[in-house]
Protein 1
Amino acid sequence: MSEPASISLSIAGRYAQALFELAKETGALKALETDADALGDVLKTSPEFAAMIASPVIVREEQAAAVQAVAAKIGVSTLMASTLALMASKRRLFVMPQLVADLQRRIATEKGEVTAEVTSAAPLSADQLAKLMATLKASSGQDIKLNATVDESLIGGLIVKLGSTMIDTSVKAKLAALQNAMKEVG
């Protein structure tokens, strides 16, 4: 891991630990989970916002004002809004993606959940997602939280990542394996 990435994870980890412990003490874990999910959605859907918080060119006050406006718009709790204001004053907003991921991981662990990353070639129906969750729950013995994404380059099938296990049933992977097998023969 590169040194800047390690430093970012360290900074994000300290903020996440403090936020998590405060929320747990005050019984606000559900609100913290909602806040983390909402911020994660903003980071995924707004590349402009993600670029703004990472930019060393934008002055601290402008970053703080922008983050406060976004926080107010998505309705984060007072605890999260205060933390974001503190991060802005210390020029630590660049760790927000790592903070969100760390918070989501801590909350899932507290709830006894495991997050499964599911990538499919086409959007999965609610019925398909329910069956997949039931299958994963049966195999892991834990509650499952699904993060589903679509990648049309898979052609068909799924890629499921659950903890350190990855199952790749995509047509793309099967074609790549076939291509490698043909290279070995010829």
Protein 2
Amino acid sequence: MPLIYRQIQSFFLLVALFILTGCSQTTSDLSDSFSLALFGTKDIAVPTERINTLPYASMYVRQGTGPRVFVVLGWVEGMDSRLSPQLKWLSAGEEMIVTEAGRIVKTVNLGNGNLSAIYAEQPDPLSLGLHKKTTPLTWQHTLNWQPGYHFGYSAISTFEKKGIESVLINGYSTELLRFDERVFVPSLDVTYTNSYWLTPLSGKVVSSQQTPAPGMDVIKFTILKPFA
């Protein structure tokens, strides 16, 4: 049996374990879906036809200098209560990345630390659409992360439009609009830069390179099949 199918079977066992231990999922129309992740020591390359036939949103993810992995969306929360829903991507090793409007807003069980939460009084410019002229290009928010019990750290983001770039996605070159986000954490005197590649017309994030919190590895992801 090919490795990819053996890994799928192993993940079904993980899903069954969640059910038996009473882990509930508050979902929208993905309430009966599952999450699938294929991890290894080398970069994963899933055939385009395989990606297209899977009935789930999917993306490639790379953490730091680790291998590129293929992740399928597990479930969605906040379809009615948020400006943008939270998309939860869960690996077979129980690592989880949560994204909202293309921003990583939480991580669980990553090796070098985890982002616990991002919160702000004003909407994230990513959720408003960075491609719009009316969207503010500055944003103040608060970060919580671990280890070290870092809670309530104020951060200031400044966005800059970089122009159109060609990005290879699912075997095809796609013209995307790039924005860089300079994040400054005053209390630590730390600055880092996130990059986002958006669909020019919709403003949806297709690819990104983000540092979720100070000291964490950079996480890169590329959406292969978007959540609809």
Protein 3
Amino acid sequence: MEKGEVQCRGLTAAPFFGREPFISWRKRNFVNVLLYGGLKRDPRIPDTPTIYEIFDKENTPEESRRVADVILRGGDFGRPWVMPPATPPEVVKTMRAAYAKAMADSALLDEAKKTKLDVEYVPGEELQKLAEKMMSQPPAVVQRVKTLLGKK
């Protein structure tokens, strides 16, 4: 910050904990994480408040919280598998069950650890609810997000 340079945003914490230059930066105490955009604190940076804790402390208005949600929650989706809207419910149910089974496979999780992949299983039902919440924002929130992202 003293030089006017800031490494300021990532959609997930995975790169910060899984690759260079961040690993070296952390080892040398070269960086301070000032704020975390997740819904709950990351145990790897336990003293770093979430944006939502700061919102609570500062009594941030609901509309501003929603704007932050729309921008920050994209990282919660990770790399989801998506299917066409016309996919029969029984196929969606089968695919979700198969994915849940894979995410519980210890061999797969051990392999992910070896390669320093950050794996966190989130059920499809939760992601679907999150998508529906993000897509049903009031017009004022949508307009503020567009403005922040440079859209008119």
Protein 4
Amino acid sequence: MTTIDLISASAFSYQELTEAYNHTRVDYMVPMPLNANKLREYVIVYDIDMKASAVAVDGYEILGLSMLGVRENRAWITRLGVIRSNRRRGTGTALMEHLIREAQKRNLPKIILEVIKNNTAAHTLFVKMGFQETRELLVLARPPVPLLPQKLPKAKVKAMSYAQIIELLKSRQAKPSWIDEHESLVKIGNIEGFYATLSDGSEGWLVYQNAVFQLGRIVIQTEVGDPVQVGRVLLHHLHQSYTKKDTKTENLPANDPHWPTFKEMGYFELFRRVELILSFK
């Protein structure tokens, strides 16, 4: 008989939490292993409340863990994982119930989470607890391959200042996910962007993270005109500027009007996430 006790994640070191998390992901659909420094960065960037986050234990044995991000009027459940030998014993349910209570204590009106598509066990648990599907999100990658020849609209492309980037991120038309909300991008660092004005009057902008070996966290918006044409100019300019860098970007909505252009530019889908929300009335 498993006894499940929940202890605040703040009682554990980042190394202990990392080892436990990686253990829960050994057989996961997409493992995504962490190290202690990456987990520390994750906590800062995504506003993880370590006191509200929890580790499930049975005596001295860690069974699983999960974390709660907290921002104005919303919470985010992330890094939920149960060690394989302890699954189907109520650990996941206990962790979820704890995080929901913590969100309610803070009078937050909704909780957001994401689950990898076709992770049936986790998806079933979330729906059982009242979460409702909202949309599918794409995780994309692009190797540093040459751009295919294509006729692009004439356009002027200008780099944007950091202040301009932040203002545009705040005014996005598309609803961002937690990981690419402006609160996240401000903390992640190395954010750059440029604005394109096409000869026919169309306009749009692209923001991205320029890390040492990889581009990522791409946010793209068409302000005026055809998203496919604007997207072509923006993505072509990005990859013409960084011909030797891999690209990985997460949580592009599956219905985003720029998705066809991403595919044209050599992006492919790694996997999908399903976003779910629990609203409190």
